[in-house]
Every structure is written in structure tokens, then in C-alpha cells.
Amino acid sequence: MTVAAAEDPVKLAEFEARLERGETIEPKDWMPEKYRKQLVRMMSQHAHSEVVGMLPEGNWITRAPSLRRKMVLLAKVQDEGGHGLYIYCGTETLGVGREELIEQLLTGKAKYSSIFNYPTLTWADIGVIGWLVDGAAIVNQTMLAKTSYGPYARAMIRICKEENFHKRQGYEICTVMAKGTPAQRAMVQDAVNRWWWPSLMMFGPSDATSPNSAELMRWRVKRETNDALRQRFVNLTIPQAQAIGLSVPDPDLRYNAETENWEFGPIDWSEFQAVIAGNGPCNRERMAARRKAHADGAWVREAAEVHAEKQAARAREHAA
Ligand code: BYC
């Protein structure tokens, strides 16, 4: 018996009719258990991605080439932490707290985006992450801003605004380097070569092999498929690469004037599978950094708890 079949059929029909009418589902509304679970899975993975995503860029804060670049990068990395917090708050509305989700991340039960398991080798990587990685995130999240679950959709609207700024700062770094010395051009081209395919993998497996897509599309959690979003990203990005004289590492790339799509070559899904199974270039390093940060922050959590207990005791005394 499927989970959906175990739900009250009348309530399920009403729920699906609401979605059909384009209504938004809010925290206190009835929802099938599987809808709640799917949202917690996606939102938890998303929140973890924002937090783990601070690591590759954080790697360059102390080595940013100017004070201006350092300030911008600091602000961007801080924004990512904020995005994680909004989305963890979103999962609280579904009955799952941040502590539980972080526990799942640290024990390896929860996933985070494959993209953050690649190293940031040069300053150009910071530009390319802003341009390609935040660019891909915007394409995905603009769709999620219309998701059927209200708190997630509203969080996405704000996050997308900030991601737009991130993308612009990244593209600006790439533009400056692409117009720079031959060594700078080579550095930014090398970064594009390394980040291009992993950026396309951010959208998830192809539609034919995506186990969650059908259900998520039916419940309007996702409004477009992994492949449709990946194609949109390629179509948006190739003209941007051309405008600054950079290329992407794909000998099969060609424009199809009939469909108006930039057709691209095959994605190496074995690499994607290896990365999400924990065997990417930096998986172990990323998890070790998160575990260390969590352990280092234990005293703050303990102090906050003691403070909250003291405040509560004082409030009880005043009330007595
Ligand atoms: N990495 O059935 P599918 C960001 C997993 S970064 C790791 O197609 P679904 C940021 C998937 O979880 C972006 N795992 O899944 C940018 C599933 O495994 P489980 C973070 C992946 O959910 C800059 C399995 O593969 N954004 O925000 O229909 C700086 C089968 O996939 C990936 C989000 O998370 C991947 N790339 O579609 C800082 C957005 N792709 O869970 C931060 C919210 C797939 O069944 N999430 N998997 O064990 C989504 O939109 C969707 O969950 C996905 C996948 C499009 C990612």
C-alpha cells in the first residue's frame, strides 16, 4: 500500500483540488504525509547546501585581491548562512527542527548539493561560482518561488533577490579577468572548464532517472523538471560566456535554431553518482569542517540554554 493510498481519500482529493486551483498550502492546512516528507527532504537538502556552500568561498576570504573584493565576498558568504537559516525556519513549520536536520547532515543521512564537493583552487573560482553556481541556483529557485508550499515559496523570493546580486558580482569578477592579462584570462577559462559540468549536475539526474520528480510535479512542489531547468540555464549562460570571450568545455555544444536551444553533450552521470555517494574531491573535507564547526559551537548552544533557563526562572519569580 502506498502512503498516498493510506491517506483519507476525501481529504486527499480536496488537497489535490486546491493545488489544481493554484492555491498555496500553508503550515496549518491538511497535507498528505508524503507531501510533508518530500518538502522536508528538499528543504533540508537546500538549507544544508547553503551552509556547506559557505566553505568553498570562505576559503578565499583571507586571500581576496582587494579590500572591496574581500568585503563583497564576506557579505556573500554571510548571505548564504542567512539563506540556510530562513530555510531551516521553513522546515520548522513542517514540524522538524534545525537541530534534528543538522544531526542528519553531520551523521551523513542528509544530502547537500553535489557542487560544494569541488575545490576552489584559484581566485577565478570565486568569480565562476558566483556566475555559474549562483546562476544555476537562481534558475532552480525562481521556479521554487512558485512552489505550492507557502513558507518555502516566500523564502525563495527573498533568496532569489540576494542570489541575483551574488551572480552579478561573480560575473563582474569573470569579466574583469577575461579582459585582463593573458594569465588572468587563462585562469578564468580554467575555472570555467572545471565548474561547467558540475554546474549542470546541480539540477539533478535526467528526468528519465529522477525518482522524485513525478510526485513533486504532481503536487506542484516542483513546477518544472530537472532537464527543462538545466536547458534554461545553458540557454541563458552561453551568450554570457560569449559576451566576455570565454568558452565552455563541450565539443558537442551547438545552437539549434529550430528549437532555439543550445544543445549540449552527454553529462558524466557516474561522476555525479560518485559525488552524491560521498566520494567527490572534497566530501570528506567538507563534512570534517562542518563537524568541527558544530563541536566548536557547543559552548554557545550550552550558554544560550542556561541563559534561557535563567530568564524563564526570573519570569516565574516575577509572576509569583
Ligand atoms: N546534489 O529525484 P531527484 C545553493 C539527489 S545550491 C546532491 O531528481 P529531486 C547555493 C536527490 O536529493 C543548490 N544530491 O530529486 C548556491 C535525490 O536523492 P534523495 C541547493 C542531488 O528532489 C550558491 C536523488 O538525487 N538547492 O542554493 O526531485 C551558494 C534523485 O534526484 C542533486 C536546492 O537544494 C545534487 N545536485 O530534485 C550557496 C534546491 N540532485 O534525496 C548555495 C531544492 C539530485 O531521494 N532542491 N540529488 O536521497 C531541488 O530543487 C531538488 O531537490 C533537486 C533534485 C533539483 C536538487
Explain what this protein looks like in three dimensions.
The chain is mostly helical and 320 residues long. Strands 1-2 form a two-stranded antiparallel ribbon. Helix 7 packs antiparallel against helix 8. The N and C termini lie far apart (54 Å). Benzoyl coenzyme A binds next to helix 3, helix 7 and helix 10.
Distinctive features:
320 residues, mainly alpha, two-stranded antiparallel sheet, 14 helices, 2 strands, globular, binds benzoyl coenzyme A
Concise structural overview:
Helices cover 68% and strands 2% of the residues. It has helices at 3-6, 9-20, 33-52, 54-58, 67-92, 98-106, 123-144, 150-178, 182-201, 213-218, 226-243, 269-279, 283-296, 298-319, and strands at 254-256, 261-263.
